[in-house]
């Protein structure tokens, strides 16, 4: 069963990991994956490196997930540095190892910001190309930004782009991290009124480290830090143990609120770890999904 079909029947549950750098061993991530499989996720997605690099390790990780046979592997795929020929070659390779789900992204632009350096400048163009050449052989997810992409002039413009990506042939949405649950709810209402009907998979970043929260929110994503989370940061500024405990409770609360909002899927950024994930899943009361459902 494909992910969009699962999301039409019930809330999906999934994780995201990232490939190690070329000079780092793969074994620590494989060990973490073994622990994540115990939660019976519907899928596990794997990122590219920054700027579309590290594709080889991405393939290694996805091949391992596919061969393990426990869940659906999903690759990220960007426009950055990819010609039409590059795209077809890489997508053929993914299909050859049994990977037929992808998250289609423009990708982070190179430092000189002179465009993607590939044949396509926007994700909707990539999606349309994939549909034209592969039909329904791939299930395609798209990225979304509940607080808008930092390059969009306003939220309305960003939602218009989301609608364009949907209409190009996307099957479901995977959102960027968002610590502001009330803002997420308002965004959900606005995209539905704008005619965005495909299922929404909400991305959740575990709150476990003060510096990581600040960096992830502000370095590229332009995410807000809600008052409650700001108070946790201030209260435990010099207490990493206390921050982790309070942050996990914040994450568990956010997951509960998102589920009550009626999200179609819950996607946790695992950060290649499993201990914290196990605690979050247990405290959230999330039950493993039976295979085949």
Describe the structure.
With about 290 residues, the chain is of the alpha/beta class. The protein has a single domain, classed as TIM Barrel. Helices cover about 45% and strands about 15% of the residues. The chain contains 11 helices and 8 strands. The protein has helices at about 5-10, 25-35, 55-70, 85-95, 125-135, 155-170, 180-195, 210-220, 225-235, 240-260, 275-285; strands at about 10-15, 45, 70-80, 100-105, 140-145, 170-175, 200-205, 265-270. An 8-stranded parallel barrel has the order 1-2-3-4-5-6-7-8, surrounded by 5 helices. α5 (about 125-135) packs parallel to α6 and α10 crosses α11. It is globular, with a radius of gyration of 18 Å. The mean pLDDT is about 95.
Helix content: 40-55%
CATH architecture: Alpha-Beta Barrel
Strand content: 5-15%
Model regions low in confidence, pLDDT < 50 over at least 5 residues = none
* Biggest sheet character: 8 strands, parallel, barrel
The CATH C-level name is Alpha Beta
Count the helices. How many? Answer: 11
Could you tell me the CATH topology label. Answer: TIM Barrel
Query: What is the tally of beta strands?
Result: 8
Work out the radius of gyration.
18 Å
Strand order of the largest sheet: 1-2-3-4-5-6-7-8
Average pLDDT level? 93
Whole-number tally of structural domains: 1
User: Gap between N and C termini, in Å?
Assistant: 8 Å
Shape from CA axes?
globular
């Amino acid at each position: 069963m494909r992910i969009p079909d699962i999301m039409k029947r019930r809330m999906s549950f999934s994780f995201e990991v990232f490939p190690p750098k070329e000079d780092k061993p793969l074994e620590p991530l494989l060990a973490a994956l073994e622990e994540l499989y115990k939660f019976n996720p519907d899928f596990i997605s794997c990122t590219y490196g920054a700027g579309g690099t590290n594709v080889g390790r991405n393939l290694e990780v996805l091949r391992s997930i596919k061969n393990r046979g426990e869940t659906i592997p999903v690759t990220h795929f960007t426009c950055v540095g990819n010609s039409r020929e590059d795209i077809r070659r890489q997508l053929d390779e993914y299909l050859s190892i049994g990977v037929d789900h992808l998250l289609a992204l423009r990708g982070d632009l190179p430092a000189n910001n002179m465009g993607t350096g590939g044949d396509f400048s926007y994700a909707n163009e990539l999606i349309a190309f994939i549909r034209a050449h592969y039909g329904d052989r791939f299930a395609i997810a798209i990225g979304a930004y509940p607080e808008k992409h930092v390059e969009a002039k306003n939220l309305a413009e960003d939602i218009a782009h989301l609608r364009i990506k949907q209409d190009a042939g996307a099957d479901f949405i995977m959102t960027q991290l968002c610590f502001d649950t009330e803002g997420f709810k308002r965004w959900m209402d606005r995209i539905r009124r704008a005619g965005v009907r495909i299922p929404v998979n909400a991305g959740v970043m575990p709150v476990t480290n003060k510096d990581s929260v600040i960096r992830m929110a502000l370095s590229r994503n332009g995410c807000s830090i809600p008052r409650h989370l700001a108070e946790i940061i201030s209260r435990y500024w010099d207490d990493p143990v206390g921050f982790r405990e309070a942050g996990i409770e914040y994450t568990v609360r956010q997951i509960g609120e998102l589920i009550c909002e009626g999200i179609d899927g819950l996607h946790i950024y695992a950060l290649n770890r499993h201990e914290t994930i196990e605690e979050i899943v247990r405290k959230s009361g999330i039950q493993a999904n039976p295979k085949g459902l």
